[in-house]
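Researcher: For the annotation table, I need structure tokens for DUF1192 domain-containing protein. Please keep the output clean. Sequence:
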Amino acid sequence: MDDDIWTPKRPAAHEIGQKLDDLSVDDLEARAASLRAEIERIEAAITAKRAALEAAGSVFKL
């Protein structure tokens, strides 16, 4: 049965506080770019949620 096969989780591309000493400059630059993209994604989600809250507030007079 395929359901019984255990597959390990892939490690995260970057973990906060992770040791950086063994990474190359290229690896560090790639991680920094990935983190910048993630920050932009999070900020977009925050903006969308704030807009939804404001819209709900105007409808329900929160």
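Researcher: And a one-line annotation?
Model: Residues 22-62 form one domain.
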